């Protein structure tokens, strides 16, 4: 009985035509314009883009894909060999986001963006904007990072597959949030219709207007790789002069992490990869949109791009090679962006033909001026490069007891805690378990072993005078130091170690 007034109001909206797709979209546009989703200093930039389009085209002011690519190329420093196909995928992503909360899979290459459509795309795409026009509170919603990841996934997915999981409510959550946040309240003393009361309405409208649901969508792996190669190249500034074979290897490694060995990436796979293994992969995507359309190099919740390592640049000028190449540092940046400033990252130690004793390696890790990144690289029997490593923000403490991460901002992951990672041939991050020992020296006659991890989970052991590496990936247990990746199940690999590097940020004089 308590909701009778709300149900009567909903019935009146339906009778007035206020629940049609066009009316809902019009209210959304008005709500965005009356919010601070687009800042006052950003509106003239967007207006200028469409005025310029008018000056060059007699047709209605629409941003086409060629116009978008041209605009990006004039405003954003890009790799010399930037793949226009990657920019086309980003444009396609925007056209999909512009249709929210009524996403359609029936996109065509002739789609273009109106001024209102572009604004909608931007406020859904940029991670700090939706909260400006979506009401939050006890009777409303509380949008989180997963909601935003879902939108990015939807905008990239182009194929359908058999629905192998249930995600019923999330399918129309965006529409439900829009219905609640844009409802007309004629008197400030009147209560809005509660969000949950609107759920049956949202479900009914969504079913009538949408041709597929998120549970059936997937991103083709090849499409993901095209975009990922571009995003990796754009992790640092300035962009690389050319695309090397190493970027292809780094792309394949990240793709294997997200696709889990399949030819497509479903929503649960995408969310797992982005949340646990590469949370900052899409930062260049956000920066590109912000630079192109808002004349801002970044947004509130996205850090500015780090400079490429000065050490790497110096070594390149000398014609010298390093194990932790720019593409691999780009991989690291996808999960260490808030923990390391890569522009200042130096190689502190390098061991190749001459190896230290295990005890000396332990001391070298302890003696770094700041955080420590250990890289261990070699070849598998197949000839594939195999690269594992360790990141420790506090090597003086993490050795005996992994410390908790520092939460820099509730909207980002803060500083990453101690982790083991794999960069080749697959990208993976194995989170350290707070309070467990990070690494230890097992004394033995002659050579000894440095072991990273204990118990189950993931363990990396450097044996035979640091010339042989063994990695064990097992089931999680109460004694593990580094958590395993569930989908990879149990496995072990060993390889001859070719190089060991230790990197850190030197302390300022």
Description:
Helix content is 38%, strand content 16%. It contains 17 helices and 15 strands. It has helices at 4-16, 21-33, 43-56, 65-75, 84-97, 115-125, 145-156, 173-182, 199-209, 221-233, 245-259, 267-276, 283-294, 310-317, 326-336, 358-366, 395-398, and strands at 159-160, 217-220, 236-237, 264-266, 306-307, 346-351, 372-379, 385-392, 419-424, 428-431, 439-442, 449-452, 458-463, 468-473, 491-504. Strands 6, 7, 8, 9, 10, 11, 12, 13, 14 and 15 form a 10-stranded antiparallel beta sheet that branches. A 3-stranded antiparallel beta sheet has the order 1-2-4. A two-stranded parallel ribbon has the order 3-5. The protein has 509 residues and is α+β, with helices and mostly antiparallel strands. The chain starts with a helix and ends in a 5-residue tail after the last strand. Mean pLDDT is 88; it is low at 408-412. A hairpin with a 5-residue loop joins β12 and β13. α2 crosses α8 (173-182), α5 (84-97) crosses α6 and α7 (145-156) packs across α12 (267-276).
Which helices and strands occur, and which strands form pairs?
Elements: H1 4-16, H2 21-33, H3 43-56, H4 65-75, H5 84-97, H6 115-125, H7 145-156, E1 159-160, H8 173-182, H9 199-209, E2 217-220, H10 221-233, E3 236-237, H11 245-259, E4 264-266, H12 267-276, H13 283-294, E5 306-307, H14 310-317, H15 326-336, E6 346-351, H16 358-366, E7 372-379, E8 385-392, H17 395-398, E9 419-424, E10 428-431, E11 439-442, E12 449-452, E13 458-463, E14 468-473, E15 491-504
Parallel strand pairs: 3-5
Antiparallel strand pairs: 1-2, 2-4, 6-15, 7-8, 7-15, 8-9, 9-10, 11-12, 12-13, 13-14, 14-15
Helix pairs in contact: 2-8, 4-5, 5-6, 5-7, 5-10, 7-12, 8-9, 10-11, 11-15
């Amino acid at each position: 009985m308590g909701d009778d007034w709300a149900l009567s109001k909903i019935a009146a909206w339906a009778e007035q035509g206020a629940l049609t797709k066009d009316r809902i979209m019009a209210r959304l546009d008005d709500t965005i314009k009356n919010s601070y989703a687009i800042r006052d200093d950003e509106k003239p930039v967007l207006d200028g883009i469409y005025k310029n389009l008018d000056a060059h085209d007699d047709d209605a002011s629409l941003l086409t894909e060629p116009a978008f690519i041209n605009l990006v190329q004039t405003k954003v420093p890009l790799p010399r060999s930037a793949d226009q196909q990657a920019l086309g995928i980003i444009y396609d992503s925007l056209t999909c986001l512009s249709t929210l909360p009524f996403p359609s899979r029936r996109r065509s290459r002739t789609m273009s963006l109106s001024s209102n459509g572009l604004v909608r795309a931007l406020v859904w795409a940029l991670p700090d904007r939706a909260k400006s026009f979506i009401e939050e509170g006890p009777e409303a919603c509380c949008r989180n990072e997963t909601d935003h990841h879902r939108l990015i996934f939807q905008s990239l997915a182009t194929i359908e597959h058999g629905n192998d999981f249930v995600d019923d409510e999330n399918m129309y959550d965006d529409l439900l949030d829009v219905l609640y946040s844009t409802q007309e309240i004629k008197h400030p003393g009147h209560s809005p219709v509660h969000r949950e009361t609107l759920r049956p309405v949202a479900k009914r409208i969504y079913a009538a207007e949408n041709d597929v649901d998120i549970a059936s969508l997937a991103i083709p792996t090849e499409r993901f790789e095209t975009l990922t190669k571009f995003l990796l190249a754009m992790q640092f500034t300035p962009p690389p002069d050319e695309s090397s074979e190493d970027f292809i290897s780094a792309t394949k490694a990240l793709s294997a992490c997200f696709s889990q060995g399949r030819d497509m990436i479903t929503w649960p796979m995408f969310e797992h990869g982005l949340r646990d293994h590469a949370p900052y992969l899409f930062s260049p995507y956000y920066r590109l949109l912000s630079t192109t359309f808002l004349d801002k190099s970044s947004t509130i919740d996205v850090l500015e791009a780090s400079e490429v390592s000065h050490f790497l640049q110096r070594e390149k000028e000398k014609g010298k090679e390093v194990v932790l190449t720019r593409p691999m540092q780009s991989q690291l940046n996808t999960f260490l962006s808030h923990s390391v400033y890569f522009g200042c990252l130096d190689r502190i130690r390098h061991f190749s033909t001459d190896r230290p004793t295990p005890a000396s390696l332990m001391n070298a890790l302890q003696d770094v001026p700041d955080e420590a990144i250990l890289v261990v690289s070699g070849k598998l029997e197949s000839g594939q490069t195999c690269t594992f490593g360790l990141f420790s923000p506090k090597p003086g403490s993490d050795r005996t007891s992994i410390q908790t991460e520092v939460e820099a901002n509730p909207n980002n992951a803060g500083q990453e805690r101690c982790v083991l990672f794999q960069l080749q041939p697959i990208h993976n991050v194995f989170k350290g378990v707070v309070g467990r020992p990070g690494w230890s020296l097992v004394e033995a006659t002659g050579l000894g072993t440095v072991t990273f991890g204990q118990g189950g989970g993931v363990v990396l052991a450097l044996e035979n005078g640091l010339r042989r590496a063994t990695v064990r990936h097992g089931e999680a247990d109460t004694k593990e130091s580094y958590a395993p990746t569930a989908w990879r199940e149990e496995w072990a690999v060993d390889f001859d170690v070719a190089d060991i590097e230790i990197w850190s940020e030197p302390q300022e004089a």
